[in-house]
Task: structure prediction
Amino acid sequence: MDRRQRKTREAIFKAFTELLSQKDFSQITVGEIIERADIGRATFYAHFETKDFLLKELCEELFCHLFDSMHKENNHHRHIFDCDAPSSVFLHLFQHLMKNDNNILGLFSCRNNELFLGYFKESLVQLVQNQIDLFDSEKNKKLPESFLVNHIVATLVGTIRWWVDNGMKESPETITEYFLAVI
Amino acid sequence: MDRRQRKTREAIFKAFTELLSQKDFSQITVGEIIERADIGRATFYAHFETKDFLLKELCEELFCHLFDSMHKENNHHRHIFDCDAPSSVFLHLFQHLMKNDNNILGLFSCRNNELFLGYFKESLVQLVQNQIDLFDSEKNKKLPESFLVNHIVATLVGTIRWWVDNGMKESPETITEYFLAVI
DNA sequence: TTATTACAGAACTCTTTGTTCAATAAAATT
DNA sequence: AATTTTATTGAACAAAGAGTTCTGTAATAA
Result:
């Protein structure tokens, strides 16, 4: 990829995430993005078809980064989804969220983030589905699996939003406890 | 309230909810609404400051209607929040959702509904807070109450969305079972 | 050095938003 | 029933944003 392209792309992402932390997605205009990124209007549209596609690609990059980091932090010989304890998977997720990526946290705290949450949930369904056997007690055997997966993902999202909205005062370990306690 | 005002207001709500069942909130223009409602442009802005205020007022009307109906269906001598079993409260909610109000269901299934869900959650927090003692086992005593309330509301919203997205095949009784089983 | 590719920046069309105003019709008041 | 008040109409209007097109220029690759 051309160095110029990379620089422009990153400038757009940077400006966009900064604006996302200030206001809702629907309130942000292309004009604001290009002004902050200091690029031409035509350049923006050469990179992204619309504002929605920009958000889409930002989400994809964030999740690649998130799951890559979790892989690296984790045991290199085993796949992340094959961990022995379910707690370790979620603990790593919470730890990573706390450590860096204010970008992701901004998307969690703002309002117009249905698209982002859609991606997040999609990514998590695979993770949860591999963990679901561990949660299957006799009590839950009667419930449809898709309902259980949906419930665990919804709970995870709800937990993170509560955590972020309350200022992330709790440690990742505590949040993992809370999360595991309610599911 | 003037009969003319009521008629235009209802025509706007009708057109708006019909459009909401077809496309996302952000895709709907004021022009489409007034064309479908068959009213003048100035009339729309005489009633609603912006499109967002229209959604806001629609949500408020829907929730008034929802909770009023639940009151009427329920025991008239006791307040809904004072019911003996927690299941009855949630069962009534699920029953009401199934019976009527395609309007509410449309808002649950569409994407851009953060504002709607915000109202819904707000309304539910009070309901849940009155029920929370019943769920307080020794296990949950360690968890902050706000976390528990947040979790129950998030689970309720997640349950309804799963129900609606899967075509509402299950009966309100079954959904209540599922819901109570996971919390 | 040459050819390719990306960017700047301006001008432009189109859509949508929100406002204004005079004319008209319905409702409330006397 | 006559008059006053209020709601609606419809058109015209300005402003803002989206997305496109073009030419000249600078950086990169061959």
Summary: The mean pLDDT of chain B is 81. The interface with chain A takes residues 26, 111-115, 118, 139-140, 142-144, 146-148, 150-151, 153-155, 157-159, 161-162, 166, 178, 181-183 of chain B (CB under 8 Å). Residues 2, 4-5, 8, 39-43, 46 of chain B lie near DNA strand D (CB under 10 Å from a C1').
